[in-house]
Amino acid sequence: MKRRRTVHGMSEVQETALWDCVFETGTDFFSSLEPLGLNYWQGVPEPVPIDVQDAWRRLGARFLAARALHPSPHPRVPWALRELGSPR
């Protein structure tokens, strides 16, 4: 995948790492998104905010590709894929 800078001035790899927990579970347990000014430690509200939808469209394919490299012995569908569908 091509390396590009995101709107936040970081690489897509860096930004995807920040969103990892939210994409996986729907909650930012570790406050990883604080550098982006976002707070989802209590979970993503319904309806899903535009910033989450936008991040999934931009970064979801990278997240799923990275996740496929390290398969879990107990696989489950990530929250973002279940709630928002395919990222592209």
Please give the number of β-strands. 0
What structural class should be given to the helix and strand makeup? Answer: mainly alpha
Radius of gyration: 12 Å
Q: What's the helical proportion of residues?
A: 40-55%
* First-residue to last-residue Cα separation: 15 Å
- Average pLDDT works out at 90
Low-confidence stretches: none
Helix segment count? 3
Q: What features would you describe in this structure?
A:
It is a single chain. This protein is mainly alpha-helical. It has one domain (12-83). It is 45% helix and 0% strand. The chain contains three helices and no strands. Helix 1 (12-25) crosses helix 2 (50-69). The longest helix is centred in the C-terminal third of the chain and has 20 residues, at 50-69. The chain is globular, with a radius of gyration of 12 Å. The two termini are 15 Å apart.
Main features:
0% strand; globular; 3 helices; 45% helix; mainly alpha; 88 residues; single chain
Question: Would you kindly provide a brief summary of this structure?
Answer:
The protein is mainly α and about 90 residues long. The chain is built from three helices and no strands.
Question: Which SSEs are present, and which pair or pack?
Answer:
Layout: H1 12-25, H2 50-69, H3 79-84
Helix pairs in contact: 1-2
